[in-house]
Amino acid sequence: MRAAPKDEFSKGKEWRLYDYVTRHFIASLMDDAEYDEILASKRIRYVFDVCGERFVFIYHEVAERGFLYAMPWKAKDLKLEEIDWAMPDMAEGDQLPVDEISVVRDTTKPPDYLRESELVALMDKNGIGTDASIPQHMQNVVDRHYVMICGPGEDGQRGEVISKGGKGKGRKGKGKGKGAKGEDGRPASRHMVPTPMGLSMLAAFEELDAQLCRPPIRAFMEKQVAQIAEGLLDKPDVVAQNLDLFYSKFVRFRENISSLDRFFMRKDQIGQSWSGGGQKRQGESWDGERKWQKGDSKGGVAGGGKKYGNSGKGKGGKK
């Protein structure tokens, strides 16, 4: 095995990719990391009583670093708390002097938006998609403007929007986390941030059929497809079953679609109501010129430009 020197690579990102792949391969050949966790439930107890308040000291002793020699950053993922000093010998009942007392005040902070890698892991855990289809599923929700890719944020605010080229743009100086940039100016991590359209679409589906927003229904279909490949199920039976299931959902969705208008209102219409609950009155439709007019439609999809009348589909204005 010969390691390629860094000067053989013309671009920094090529070197980082090579370095990561090489380290990952070498780590796969090394031993597991072994560590001992010293905490209150183990043989050695480090519980300190200070004026009636009990404090538990937790730390880890790494017996064998194993693959951590090749991938030292994995120690952070394992949440190892190591100490660089020797713990003194103590026995139960020993009294120790209190050198200093301090009170630190802090507040909890909201977590950052889901990383792309975290979403992939959750989809795989819930049986949604395959290694080949998951990237396309994620790209679809981006292309349809349900989510946008942003850099790391801070205090619950999203980071800079990442363009298709991979670099951040917009919202300069806002929502950027510390160390948000890599060596080449690219964001340090990529996060899936839902758009107002995506949140409205999810809320609308939750209103009419929450099952469509849950992983099990898609995971069950994926499992059926795998069983077809294994010869356990017949394709025509699976297709017929799923067509019946989703057709019934479609019919129920269409019959109640007028109740979703409140999820797709323009900003200047928020807080207004056409029939007490933000729903369109039966027999009225949008004429595309910011006013309501009488019509035969029973409902419509706000923003979709389509509505369903007594005799099927008819053209509707945009909202």
From TrEMBL:
Q: Which GO terms describe its cellular component?
A: nucleus
GO BP annotations of the record are: DNA recombination; DNA repair; DNA topological change
GO MF terms held by the record: DNA binding; DNA topoisomerase type I (single strand cut, ATP-independent) activity
* Compositional bias of kind Basic and acidic residues: 281-297
Q: Where is there biased composition of kind Basic residues? A: 166-179
Q: Provide the alphabetized UniProt keywords.
A: DNA-binding, Isomerase, Topoisomerase
InterPro entries given in the database record:
Topo_IA (IPR000380), Topo_IA_cen (IPR013497), Topo_IA_cen_sub1 (IPR013824), Topo_IA_cen_sub2 (IPR013825), Topo_IA_cen_sub3 (IPR013826), Topo_IA_core_domain (IPR023405), Topo_IA_DNA-bd_dom (IPR003602)
Extent of Gly residues compositional bias: 298-319
Q: What is its EC number?
A: 5.6.2.1
Report the catalytic activity. ATP-independent breakage of single-stranded DNA, followed by passage and rejoining
Q: Which Pfam families match?
A: Topoisom_bac
Keyword DNA-binding among record annotations: yes
Disordered: region residues = 157-193, 271-319
Residue intervals of the Topo IA-type catalytic domain: 1-251
Similarity annotation: Belongs to the type IA topoisomerase family.
Q: What does this protein do?
A: Introduces a single-strand break via transesterification at a target site in duplex DNA. Releases the supercoiling and torsional tension of DNA introduced during the DNA replication and transcription by transiently cleaving and rejoining one strand of the DNA duplex. The scissile phosphodiester is attacked by the catalytic tyrosine of the enzyme, resulting in the formation of a DNA-(5'-phosphotyrosyl)-enzyme intermediate and the expulsion of a 3'-OH DNA strand.
Protein name in UniProt: DNA topoisomerase
- According to its UniProt entry, this protein's organism is Symbiodinium pilosum (Dinoflagellate)
